[in-house]
Design a protein that fits this description.
globular; two-stranded antiparallel ribbon; alpha+beta
Length: about 100
């Protein structure tokens, strides 16, 4: 019985998955932090503020991380994830406004 070395493409896939998970975690933290401070916010304003924070590399007061490319689709995906988890909710009369 001979063991074959692990394929390089498998390591690359794991690294990509890990990077995507870190990005999603950072985005979810940013969304939560912004909505905690604002209590409620129009979804368009939230997306803009998260993208702006990603470009500047800011998580909050005094905290910084490496800036990375972030698109509205990434932010909206995280918003849907947080809505499904119950961390965020929409106003019934104005579904485009999110609350923490």
């Amino acid at each position: 019985l001979r063991l074959l070395p692990q394929q390089r493409y498998l390591r690359a896939e794991r690294a990509e998955v890990s990077a995507l998970e870190r990005k999603r975690n950072i985005l979810c933290c940013l969304i939560t932090r912004i909505l905690k401070a604002e209590k409620q916010l129009h979804i368009d304003n939230l997306v803009f503020r998260v993208i702006d924070a990603c470009q500047k590399g800011e998580v909050g007061p005094g905290l910084q991380f490496l800036s990375f490319c972030c698109h509205s689709v990434d932010v909206l995906s995280c918003v849907l994830h947080l809505l499904n988890q119950g961390y965020l909710r929409r106003q019934e009369e104005r579904p485009h406004v999110l609350e923490y």
